[in-house]
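Hello support,

Our group uses your service weekly, and this is the first time we've seen a run hang past the timeout. The protein is Glucose 1-dehydrogenase. I'm not sure whether the cause is the sequence or the server load. Input pasted verbatim:
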Amino acid sequence: MAAKLKDKTALVTGAAQGIGAAIARAFAAEGAFVYITDLNADLGRAVAAELGDGACYLPLDVRLEADWQQITRQILDERGRLDVLVNNAGITGFEQGMVAHDPEHASLEDWHAVHRTNLDGVFLGCKYGIRAMRQAGAGSIINISSRSGLVGIPGAAAYASSKAAVRNHSKTVALYCAEQGLAIRCNSIHPAAILTPMWEPMLGDGPDRAARMAALVRDTPLRRFGRPEEVAAVALLLASDEAAYMTGSELNLDGGLLAGSAVTPATAEAPSPTPP
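Update from on-call engineer: The timeout came from a worker crash unrelated to the input. Re-ran successfully.
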């Protein structure tokens, strides 16, 4: 069976760890040449080295337009095309510790910082992704949004706002490309509770780690964290020609969280109720 991304060139932002690294690995395993980009050069180079001839690391600050101009120009010079772009880089706003991010107390500076990475970075990625893909007239842009982009998050207003904007901008990009007569597709993925390094400060490594993990996914019907590889599998589908008719779509990857009310597994003491 032929590799799903054979001879394709992909760029993944925020690919030094977590979801981005898992996506890069999945793409390389299916035949793509992957540009690993991140501000963490050491981790980014390590992922690229792991993938060998199928990848290389390039620094990219997604907030800077000049960086996007440079990297897309370099990719076209080196590879002649860009087939897949994954706008994955993002921040929560809590990277330096817990600060107020609710609608009443969040500072404008903190609000802007989250949006510069999560929204401006996606806007610039889409802008230069379209331009790089235009010469071939085809490609796949995959934007990583979040479950938080579909519901309100009182304690993380900037993050929720930015991810909601990513969701809607993905649809706008999809419609624009179709209007232009381009076979450039744009879709968004909305993960929830994926076990990445972002969660480690909340989980810790003490004896109560398992209890903390269980508490954090208590409202998730599947009662577990998702894995970065599970997000990568969805991204692989969207990147491949198998999803050639899918654009402007949003895919939730949340263990059933948004399907409706939380489900409590049946126990011997409390059997599952019989539907009326």
